Amino acid sequence: MNSDGYPLYRRRRNNRTHIFHHSGFVADNRHVVPYNPYLSHRYNAHINVEICTSARAIKYLCKYITKGSDRAQLQAIRTTISTTADNSNNIATATTEGSATQTINNRTTATTSSSGTTTTTTTTTTAANDTNTTSTTTPYAPSHKLDRAREAATGTKLLAFFQLCTNDDQACQYCYHEIPTHYTWNPRTNPPVANVVIRICSISLSNMPLFSLRLLLLSVLGPRSFNELKTFNDITYDTFEQAALARGLLESDDEWDHCLQEACQFARVPSMIRSLFVYILINCMPADPLTLWNKYHERMSDDYFFQLHTNMRNNQYELTKQEYEQLYQRTLGDIEFQLQATGHHLTEFPTLPQQFILEFDDPPHGVDVLARVEQDDYNSEEQQQLLHTMLPILNTEQRHAFDTIITFLNDQPDDPTTRLFFINGPGGTGKSLLFKALLAHVRGRTAHSRFKIPLNANDSTTCTLPLTGAHAHIIQEAKLIIWDEAVMCGKYNFQAVDHALRDIMGAVDKRLQDVSFGSKVVVFGGNFRQILPVIKKGTGSEVVRQSIRQATFWDQIQVLYLTQNMRIRNLGPKATSFAQKLLSIGNGDHLYSETVEIPEEWLMDSNDVTALINMIYPSIRSPESHPTHYAGRAILASKNVNVDDINDLAYSIFPGEGRSYISNDKIIDSDDPEGASTTYPVEFLHSIATSGVPRHELQLKIGIAIILLRNLDPDRGLCNGTKLFVTALHDHIIGVRRIDQGYDGDEYFLPRINMCTIEGEYPFILCCRQFPVHAAFAITINKTQGQTLSTVGIYLDEPVFAHGQLYVALSRATDSANIKVALNLSN
Prior knowledge:
This protein has 827 residues and is an alpha/beta fold. The protein folds into five domains: 17-66, no CATH class; 71-81 and 89-201, no CATH class; 254-361, no CATH class; 382-561, Rossmann fold (3-Layer(aba) Sandwich), CATH 3.40.50; 654-774, no CATH class. The protein has 26 helices and 28 strands. The strands form nine sheets. A five-stranded antiparallel sheet has the order 22-21-20-19-25. Strands 3-4-5-8 form a four-stranded mixed sheet, covered by helices on one side. Strands 12-13-11-14 form a four-stranded parallel sheet, with helices on one face. Helix 8 runs parallel beside helix 10, helix 14 crosses helix 18 (470-477) and helix 16 (396-410) packs parallel to helix 17. It is globular and about 120 Å long. 32% of the residues are buried. The model is unreliable at 80-104, 132-154, 189-194, 360-372 and 444-448 (pLDDT under 50).
């Protein structure tokens, strides 16, 4: 053996030779590599067999895996079309040729070693860079009718595009940058090719007129002139910048003024305007909130004026200045409570009037006011009646868990102790029923999302909760915290809340700083068969390390188990068999480690998406279908790309006239925004699809089911993942209602808000201003964890990729007859 672990073979020269005809090389016994006759015969291939005694002996395996991608030599060739003498706008086509110089496979290696060319590619790049508004025009010609092309061009492509849209109705369905994929410029000189790359030259932000023109060309379908580019909603604007602003392609604080103006026009009650104002304050960061308040505070206070006049039974009564101020303070009070529901405060907007806050921040009064407002949301007698109704139907396991937790709620030991519980049970075992009974016992209301946990929690993450004030007092008085679906949350989220509660409770009793969660009774719920925390590009071991079982306090938790499936009780043997199959999948009790056999009765005859949509949504083509028809139905897929494709198809089937809303995308962390605008063109930013951010072009119809992507108003159930349906489509706001409440529910106006990608996901932070919704015919499997659906379709174009996804998808339905799985059998 040599120092690298290779064997030193004794190869004698035995005068037996072989001549390679192509190269003339003479090989003898010394050139024969070690081989195994059985392997060569078995696989009909040349197999080199070596003894491996060291990692160095296989270093080339590592080298070839990690050596990087193929490399190529590139050469740019620019050609210019001859034109008439008076034409100053020559048309150029850039062609690139590449010869690969290194690949891994044997054929390429042999070709390269013999100085041969491995690959040659030619790509035509069409540069659309004309902005001259005075040149004459020559139209494009359809590539399938080259004989009808006109004489060589003497004008710019942009003006020719306008003339093409004027003369050819078919071209009006395309934007400027899409034209070269359907039409050919000057076909007699430049014949059409199959591989075409279209790019409009980048424009810096410093040249705002041209930058705005470029945005309009990327968005407006079939304009026939520059005036049509500058026209929106029958208004022709003076500049491209004004037109881009009107279309929402550029950011402007005027958008929030337009939002409130539309709300005043269409709102049924003033509370809708107040809620919209709160959404704008929290999510849109307006530069001048005071101007918005001064302009619309009267309309936001109309219901309080009406209430005062009603109480006085005198509609002609003229209010004094002091009475006006009191009414406006009531309006500010309602705005403050809505802000606090999402962990914000009016003091974050110092330009707004603060008189109400000065009174509210007095701790005794503030606590009384906040507690009274919260108590208005439930009826204590109704909750007690609900508790008496639920207790008899709890099974033995549920009642044991209920009594155990209630004992700790009522017990006030002299020495602070840890009081943590985890309710562990698969779907259908009644975790939700148990939680409702516990909440009805204490107050009948779940805890708010008060903890303000950052999105990217890590081991140093802390909650930004104040240690004093009204909110701190409310948390100190809380009896019970319930955290459902805890399995999906990373351990750092829990640990951040743990530290926050220790600090808040430690202000009352210093001993509580050393007790987990400040000695609060905390009940976690979940099922480890389901989806674990999502760790971007994380390995299986990294995901496990982030689970709640790896949290610092896990060994202090008392685990209570629920095993009896309440859904199938009294439903017969078929339901029992269904539950057992689900448990088998969740437990991993299948025959093969990498595959799960789906029962044939659950499978569709094909993986046709249209058939799946019709099966799950049989009334989708009926304009009269009630929104609640979509409440308990969903098509589930593991990846966002499949979800988008299914939603697009369902949108095209859904009746009614649609409307498209274009997002405004920008990079917000660049030191050189002007340079970033050319380095990353807006069409590239528009093409980025990331989880939790809506698409660049959002298509909506009245009545369509949508899902909310942000926590806008937790008190009213407008949380991330809430299903809604569209009630109104305006220029700057959309009207929505909760789908579970149907037409009887309250209507809300949503503005476009700023949504940003997570730091580290891209080389920049992308900020997208768009309505925080997307269609909800299909949703990802992860989004449905914790939900119960009546009818479930599962589209598996390829196998699921994460622990628990298949179990979660199949266990959303309560009856196996209401599950249909569409598999791609070729994958």
